[in-house]
Amino acid sequence: MSRLFGEVHRKVQDEQGTRKLADRIEEIACKTEIDDDAKAFIESLDMFFLSTVDHNGRPTVSYKGGHTGFVQVLDAQTLIFPVYNGNGMQLSVGNMVANADIGMLFIAFDKPHRIRLQGVSAVSRDPQLLAIYQEAEFVVKVTLSELWQNCPRYIHRYTRESQSRYVPVAQCQTPLAEWKRFEFMQDVLSEEDARKAQDSGFIQVEDWMAKIKAGAPDV
Predict the structure, then answer these.
(1) Which residue pairs from 26-32 have beta carbons closer than 8 angstroms and sit at least 24 positions apart in sequence?
(2) 57 touches 35 (CB < 8 A)
(3) CB 154 within 8 A of CB 140
(4) CATH top-level class for 31-150?
(5) Domain map of the chain by residue range?
(6) How do residues 159-213 score in pLDDT, each as one tens digit?
(7) Whose CA is closest to 140, among 177, 102, 114?
(8) What sign for the dihedral angle of Cα 84, 219, 164, 60?
(9) What are the φ/ψ torsions at residue 4 (nearest 5 degrees)?
């Protein structure tokens, strides 16, 4: 029995003559434990892509970023990652609460490499987990289902210029997202964010968009 392929996959593989190739790749690459190499790679990254499914069965993918090592491998079956302050929509969190099955793509662009992981998520506000991450609103614990390394040949090479100044760090006040400084957003912000916006001063949408178009690093 395949862990990855269903009847539709088999039909397409047979049409393309790739069933044996697919079986060999699954045999070699598909893992049910996070080994030392996978752990080292995952914990060397400062971003990944998260796939969840919403209440209508629609898939969505979001980018998650933090400081290097913000995804922590606890053991061969378990990893955790933080959810920081966002736009309040709680799409990823809400999706995971309703449907715990998720996908994660870990990818490095400087030395092309990637790992795909599927698992079962549990969204937590356990104080012990929250204490691991500065200003995390939630911590997600993921129990591994499968992971496998993908061929890196189509990964374009990029290098990182800098990490985001918005990732929370100890002994440093985290800047408020600039779009939360729009005047028309003030009546829907939390009290804390509204206070920060008042202290920082309001900004105009046109100025913010101009900074984005100019590639400003601090937007």
Answers:
(1) 26/2, 26/148, 29/148, 29/149, 30/3, 30/4, 30/146, 30/147, 30/148, 31/146, 31/147, 31/148, 32/3, 32/144, 32/145, 32/146
(2) no
(3) no
(4) mainly beta
(5) 1-30, 31-150, 178-213
(6) 988 889 899 998 888 999 999 999 999 999 999 999 999 999 999 999 888 888 8
(7) 102
(8) positive
(9) -110, -30
